[in-house]
Amino acid sequence: MPSFNENLKKYAELAIKIGLNLRAGQQLIIFNSSTRGVPIHAAPFVREVARAAYTAGARYVDVIWNDEALLRMRAELAPRDSAKEYSTWHINALKNNLDNGDAMLTIRSNNPGLLSDLDADFIGAMQQTHLEKYSPITSAVTMNKSNWLVIAAASPDWALKLFPNLSRKEAEAKLWEAIFQITRVDQPDPIAAWETHIKNLHARSTYLSGKQYKALKYSAPGTDLTIGLPAGHRWISARELAQNGIEFTANIPTEEVFTIPHREQVNGVVSASMPLAYSGMMIEDFSLTFEKGRVVKVSAKKGESTLKNMVEADEGACLLGEVALVPYSSPISQRGHLFYDPLIDENVASHLALGHAYRSNLIGGNELTDAEFMARGGNVSISHVDFMVGSNKLDIDGIKEDGTTEPVMRKGDWVIEV
User: Fold this and answer.
1) CA neighbours within 13 Å on the CB side: how many for 261?
2) Please, which residues have CB within 8 angstroms of residue 301's CB and are 6 or more apart in sequence?
3) Cβ contact 276:283 at 8 Å
4) Pick from 358, 332, 351: which is nearest to 230 by CA?
5) Cis omega (within 30 of 0) for bond into 253
6) 363 SS3 class
């Protein structure tokens, strides 16, 4: 069996070669938006990524760091009228990087319940400020301005959330083992395994793009939802083409094929199938009711105020920006437990996202102004939040232009053959 250090090295190489597909001469900036920087406990992995990047020909690797303890300290002790205080130097660094066509890597290593026992209103105001300041980066990323990647690194606090009966050291080791498994790092040749996986996902997204369904119908206990799809929508999976001409895979792991919903054609109710970790808070047992695209009612057994703040972040935060299909039998789902992080949990089952839509999901989308994009059905927002709706009880039908339907998923799994 490979040692931990060997797997960590292979994981870093996977990030550089498959995820970012980093080109010689590019710079790389490493970051984490939700914690305003990479948590310092991820330093061993960051060093391996930097080593792999320089080996691949990177001219310069820069890292923006932060400490979760400091973020919690602010939420707990800072004056209640200070939520709009914000340093923008890191936003400028990220913007310069993307403007230059360089690569950006987000490493998520978050404690999902970091702020869950603190003042939800103050945390919501802090998050609102962050989203507003970060919006130029959100916009650039959703337009694939450059090659970018989101990937995970284990941390003790996150690991204990998953494996509470183990010691901190044992839990972190077990979480790393899980990450290596779901990202195919534990396979003899992870790069080859990913090339095959990407090919299989591409075949499915190509099939769905060709169908050009008018809408999708979701049916499950607590869910009766119809999602309109705009004309000229594209289903995308794994590998995409950035505006700098580099093909990249934005998420590792990824099991999804996704497209753009029509911002004004979502109606009905949808119940989340998993808890959502958002801005250091947990939202559990929640549902959303839509009318003509907008969320008109929210309900949650835990974190309802956080959910309300989330959908009120701006005008587009209460509208859908992504619809993604993931088989319930995915390898991540088969592990049988939550990861409490949307990067991974969105690959357990089908999901939706509130907020900003990806321009690349609409033919010609990158050439449109915001107004033109919205006129064609796209959504613009300072936020983009994935939440899971898939289960082994979810059925999804494709609605064709003539109003007839055909099955796409039954009991959470594909019924279409490609």
Assistant:
1) 31
2) 284, 285, 286
3) yes
4) 358
5) yes
6) coil
Dihedrals phi, psi of 305, to nearest 5 degrees: -65, -35
239-241/247-249 β-pairing: antiparallel
294-303, long-range: CB < 8 A, 24+ apart: 294/318, 294/319, 295/319, 295/354, 302/275, 303/116, 303/120, 303/276, 303/278
pLDDT of residue 277: 87
Say if residue 1's pLDDT is above 80. no
Q: Report, as an integer, the average pLDDT of 88-114.
A: 95
Residue 187 has pLDDT above 70, yes or no: yes
| Cα distance between residue 283 and residue 300, in whole Å | 7
- Taking the C-alpha atoms of residue 135 and residue 167, their distance in angstroms, rounded to an integer, is 39
Neighbours of 115 (CB within 10 A): 24
> Taking a C-beta distance cutoff of 8 angstroms, is the pair 214, 113 a contact?
no
Number of helices (H) and strands (E), helices first, in the chain?
11, 21
Bridging pattern class, strands 60-63 and 27-31: parallel
Record the tokens describing residue 354, joined without a space: 């509130």
In terms of Cα–Cα distance, which of 55, 36, 46 is closest to 114? 36
Backbone angles phi, psi at 215, to 5 degrees: -160, 165
Rounded CA-CA distance 146/246 in Å is: 8
SS3 assignment, position 2:
coil
Is pTM beyond 0.85? Reply is yes
339 contact partners, CB below 8 Å, separation of at least 6: 162, 178, 332, 345, 348
Q: Facing residues of 224 across strands?
A: 219, 269
Cα–Cα distances in angstroms (integers) from residue 282 to residues 98, 130, 257, 277, 383, in the given order: 31, 19, 26, 5, 17
Angle (CA) 244-245-248 rounded to 5° is: 95
What CA–CA distance (Å, rounded) separates 260 from 216?
11
Dump the DSSP string for 242-294: -TTS-EEE-BSS---EEE---TT-EEEEEE-SS-EEETTEEEEEEEEEEETTE
Q: Is the pLDDT of residue 95 over 80?
A: yes
